[in-house]
Amino acid sequence: MTLAAALALAAILAGIAYQRIGTARDKRRLPPPGWLVDVGRGRLHLHAQGEGTPAVVFDAGISASSLSWLRVAPAVGEFTRAVCYDRSGLAWSDRTHAPVTARSLAAELRVLLEAGAVAPPYVLVAHSFGAFVVRAFASQFPDRVAGIVLVDPILPAEWLNMAPAQRRRLAGGVFLSRVGAVLAAVGFVRLCLDLLQRGSTAMPKGAARMFGSEASALMTRLVAQVQKLPREAWPLMCAHWSRPRSFMAMADHLSGLRQSAVEIAAAGPIGDVPLIVITASTQPASVRAEHARIAADSTRGVHIVAEEAGHWILIDEPDIVVDAVRRVVDMCRPA
Q1: Would you tell me which of 18, 188, 206, 280 could form a disulfide with 183, CB atoms 3.0–4.6 Å apart?
Q2: In what order do the strands lie in the sheet with 82-85?
Q3: pLDDT of residue 285
Q4: Where in the sequence is the domain holding 242, given as residue range(s)?
């Protein structure tokens, strides 16, 4: 073995040890705020706060978790029961290895809520990709849905007729997620995130640039959004994204994205439940129009534009989301 190979092997072994020690430390210091519920193929994390009916169930973006609702769920818990969960492989949830498409995720959510003793009907609140799960849930289990709030939802049309460049970006996202899982396994992601928490950005940004300008831009956006969360959430976010399974879960979600779009396109209108669709001010006119059309599918539908927020409205302008949830909850309650 050459000296270079021996040094590389030593670095890898040291990284694996660093990762295992860090993972064990995270489990001791950062337990789940809720509880783990067996859904048949594994356990999903469920966290509830507050009391009252209808229960409000929050679903996060494509690779986000219950932590993304930290500026919204506690406020909703002041006037009804607020329930957050983590999809397969994300945050505290096991990777269940079920198909990651809108319909399968909705079916898994139903099992989770039943096993977790969260009584229907629900007000379902979803951000971005979570809207696919919520719309699939409403299509499959309409008797369990009292109302819906969609926060800057993605649209099926975006993923049904992708241009070649968009297909390449999606395939690249799956590939980079799997590369991320390998880098997490050998401790490299943990090292970058540990440095980031201490204020050093040079190594994380340099690592992102190794994978191209899009990866670098994504890293910059993610860091900016994480920094808007309460400070106590930062160690939790870093712990979760230091694990290989978080990256594999992201690959699972991205791989099933087009099939999810097919399922939602075939699901039909949401129906006449109370519905509010909130659009980011940064969205183009075509997306605003489509969001308005989704809201108009319900006779009790409302479309709102969050004038001060980008895509992460739940972080940029949480009060507008809380107000929309309160409005739908009030519409669902007896007069």
Answers
A1: 188
A2: 35-38, 43-49, 82-85, 55-59, 122-127, 145-151, 275-280, 301-306
A3: 94
A4: 164-255
Do 229 and 279 belong to one domain?
no
Tokens representing residue 158 in the block = 């975006």
Q: How far is CA 5 from CA 11, 14, 183, 187, in A?
A: 10, 14, 18, 18
Tell me if 197 is assigned to some domain. Answer: yes
User: What is the 8-class DSSP label of residue 126?
Assistant: E
169-186 mean pLDDT: 88
DSSP 31: -
Q: Is residue 19 part of a domain?
A: no
Angle among Cα 89, 167, 139 to the nearest 5 degrees reads: 55
d(CA 237, CA 255) in angstroms, rounded, equals: 23
Predicted pLDDT at 231: 78
The CA distance from 124 to 131, in Å, is 9
Instruction: Give Cβ neighbours of residue 59 (< 8 Å, ≥ 6 apart).
Output: 85, 87, 109, 124, 125, 126, 127, 130, 131, 133, 134
Query: Does any domain span residue 142?
Result: yes
User: What is the rounded distance in angstroms from the CA atom of residue 332 to the CA atom of residue 148?
Assistant: 10
> Is the predicted pLDDT of residue 145 greater than 60, yes or no?
yes
Tell me how crowded residue 163 is: count the other CB atoms within 10 A of its CB.
8
Classify 198 as helix, strand or coil.
coil
Task: Answer whether 239's CB lies under 8 Å from 264's CB.
Answer: no
Q: Measured at the alpha carbon of residue 82, what is the angle toward residues 27 and 228, in degrees to the nearest 5?
A: 65
Looking at the fold, whether 39 and 157 belong to one and the same domain comes out as yes
pTM score, whole prediction: 0.91
Q: How far is CA 130 from CA 10, 14, 162, 198, 321, in A?
A: 42, 38, 20, 32, 15
Q: What tens digit of pLDDT does each residue of 260-276 get? A: 999 999 987 888 899 99
